[in-house]
C-alpha cells in the first residue's frame, strides 16, 4: 500500500501531465484499497477473500467544457494515452458555465486536522476467522436460534489523494474493521432472521464478537410469532438502526443538485422551520476516528462541523462548487468525489442530537402504536415528500413494546413527519449516520 505522500504525488503528476497536454485546468484522484474478508457458517470456514486495487481518475477542463476518465492500469504509456484522450474529449464536450474547479481562494492550506483514521496493527486471516467464529457461536447459543446464515469479519486499509491544477494537493489514509452475524430462529414457515453488525476505524473500538453474535440471536428470537397490525393512524417509533434513513431523506432533499434542478420537497425551506423545536442535526467531519471523517472535501476545500438543522430550523444546503455557482451561493465543503465523473455532495459523520426524554418516557403515553426495526422497499418521492415503506417490528401497547408484528406499511409525508418528530435521549455513535430512537406522530399504518 502506498503512503499518503506517494498517493498525493501520483495525483499531482497526472494533473501536471494534463496541463502540459493542453488542459486549462484539471484535478485528479488516486485511490488505493486493500481488504481481507473471512466468512464462516455453522462452524465451518466458508470463504477467505483478499482484494487490492489502485485507481486514478482525471477531470480536465478546456474553457467551460470538461471530460472525466479513469483507469486501474497505471503504466506510463497508459497514463499518457489517458491524458490525451481526456483533453480530446473535453474539446468535444458541451459547454457548462457552472462547471469548474473549486474557488482558489477557498482551498485548504496548511496541515490537515489529526483525525486518527488509520490503525497501526496487523490483522491476519486467522484473526478474522477467530472473531467471526466467536460471533456465530454466541448467536447460535441463544435459545430459539435454529440455523445460521453465517458470520463474517473484515479488515481493510485505504489511501485517498486529490490534486488540482490551481494549488491543492492532499491525501489521507484510513483503516476499517467489520464484524457481523446473521441467524435464523424458529422452524418451517415460522422462521425469522435478524443480524448484528458493527464497524470501526480501529480494531480496538470494535464490539466484542460474543456481544455482536448474542445481539443477532436475541433479535431473531424476538421476532418469532409475529402478529398482524390493525390499520389506523397512530404514533410510529423508529429504532435507531432504521431511523437514520429519515435523515438520509433530508440530506437528499437539501443537496445542491436537487435544489438547482428544483426536484426537492424542501425547495423553498432554507431558513424556515422543518423539524419540531429542539431538533438539531449536525455534520461533523472532524470526529476522531469517525467512520466518515475527512480532512478536506472532494474539491480540496476545508471542512468543519456544521448544524444543518438548528432547533428545528433548516440552516444550510449541501453544496459543491458547481451547484453553488448555479444557485449564486458559496460551496459548503460537502463535495464528494469518486474516481470517475464530477463531484457530487455527501455528508460526513451526520447525527441528530439526543432529546431530553428516555425511550421509556417516549413510549409511555402510546396506547396503540408500532415500534419499527426493519424497513422494506423504496417508496419515497423526493419531489413531493410522500413516504410509504413496508415495515416489521413490534406493537406498542399501553406504553410498552410487546408482540412482534410484520407485513405492514407505514405512510405519511416527510414534511409532516419531520414536523411531528421527537427524539429520545439514547444517541450512540455507531454508524456514519446516527440518530436516537425517534417518535413520529400521526402516521398511517396499514396491516397486511
UniProtKB/TrEMBL annotation:
Pfam family, one: PmbA_TldD_3rd
GO biological process, one term: proteolysis
Domain of life (superkingdom): Bacteria
InterPro entries: Metalloprtase-TldD/E_C, Metalloprtase-TldD/E_cen_dom, Metalloprtase-TldD/E_N, PmbA, TldD/PmbA_N, TldD/PmbA_sf
Domain Metalloprotease TldD/E central: 122-224
Residue stretches making up the Metalloprotease TldD/E C-terminal domain: 231-447
Gene Ontology cellular component list: cytosol
All residue ranges annotated as the Metalloprotease TldD/E N-terminal domain in the record: 26-90
Record-level Gene Ontology MF annotations: metallopeptidase activity
Family: Belongs to the peptidase U62 family.
PANTHER family listed in its UniProt record: METALLOPROTEASE PMBA
Protein name (database record): Modulator protein
Organism: Sphingomonas adhaesiva
Amino acid at each position: 500500500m502506498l503512503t499518503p505522500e506517494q498517493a498525493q504525488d501520483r495525483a499531482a503528476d497526472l494533473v501536471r501531465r494534463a496541463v502540459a497536454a493542453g488542459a486549462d485546468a484539471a484535478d485528479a484522484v488516486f485511490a488505493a484499497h486493500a481488504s481481507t474478508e473471512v466468512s464462516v457458517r455453522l462452524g465451518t470456514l466458508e470463504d477467505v477473500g483478499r482484494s487490492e486495487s489502485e485507481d486514478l481518475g482525471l477531470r480536465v477542463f478546456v474553457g467551460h467544457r470538461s471530460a472525466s476518465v479513469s483507469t486501474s492500469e497505471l503504466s506510463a504509456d497508459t497514463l499518457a494515452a489517458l491524458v490525451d484522450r481526456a483533453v480530446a474529449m473535453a474539446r468535444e464536450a458541451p459547454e457548462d458555465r457552472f462547471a469548474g474547479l473549486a474557488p482558489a481562494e477557498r482551498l485548504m492550506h496548511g496541515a490537515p486536522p489529526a483525525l486518527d483514521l488509520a490503525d497501526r496493527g496487523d490483522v491476519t486471516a486467522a484473526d478474522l476467522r477467530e472473531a467471526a467464529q466467536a460471533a456465530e457461536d454466541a448467536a447460535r447459543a441463544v435459545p430459539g436460534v435454529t440455523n445460521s446464515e453465517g458470520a463474517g469479519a473484515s479488515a481493510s486499509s485505504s489511501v485517498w489523494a486529490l490534486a488540482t491544477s490551481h494549488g491543492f494537493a492532499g491525501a489521507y489514509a484510513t483503516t476499517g474493521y467489520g464484524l457481523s452475524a446473521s441467524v435464523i430462529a424458529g422452524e418451517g414457515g415460522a422462521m425469522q432472521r435478524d443480524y448484528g453488525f458493527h464497524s470501526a476505524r480501529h480494531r480496538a473500538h470494535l464490539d466484542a464478537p460474543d456481544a455482536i453474535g448474542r445481539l443477532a440471536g436475541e433479535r431473531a428470537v424476538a421476532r418469532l410469532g409475529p402478529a398482524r397490525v390493525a390499520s389506523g393512524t397512530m404514533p410510529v417509533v423508529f429504532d435507531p438502526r432504521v431511523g437514520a434513513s429519515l435523515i438520509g431523506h433530508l440530506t437528499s432533499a437539501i443537496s445542491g443538485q436537487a435544489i438547482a434542478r428544483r426536484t426537492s420537497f424542501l425547495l423553498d425551506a432554507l431558513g424556515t422551520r422543518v423539524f419540531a423545536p429542539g431538533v438539531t442535526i449536525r455534520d461533523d467531519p472532524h470526529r476522531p476516528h469517525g467512520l466518515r471523517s475527512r480532512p478536506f472535501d472532494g474539491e480540496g476545500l476545508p471542512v468543519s462541523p456544521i448544524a444543518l438543522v438548528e432547533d428545528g430550523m433548516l440552516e444550510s444546503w449541501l453544496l459543491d462548487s458547481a451547484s453553488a455557482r448555479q444557485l449564486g451561493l458559496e460551496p459548503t465543503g460537502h463535495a464528494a468525489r469518486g474516481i470517475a465523473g464530477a463531484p457530487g455532495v455527501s455528508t460526513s459523520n451526520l447525527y441528530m442530537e439526543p432529546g431530553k426524554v428516555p425511550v421509556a418516557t417516549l413510549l409511555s403515553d402510546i396506547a396503540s402504536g408500532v415500534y419499527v426495526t426493519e424497513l422494506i422497499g423504496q417508496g419515497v418521492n423526493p419531489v413531493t415528500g410522500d413516504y410509504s415503506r413496508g415495515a416489521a417490528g413490534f406493537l406498542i401497547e399501553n406504553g410498552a413494546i410487546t408482540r412482534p408484528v410484520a407485513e405492514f406499511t407505514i405512510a405519511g409525508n416527510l414534511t409532516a413527519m419531520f414536523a411531528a418528530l421527537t427524539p429520545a435521549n439514547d444517541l450512540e455513535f455507531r454508524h456514519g449516520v446516527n440518530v436516537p430512537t425517534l417518535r413520529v406522530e400521526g402516521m398511517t399504518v396499514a396491516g397486511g
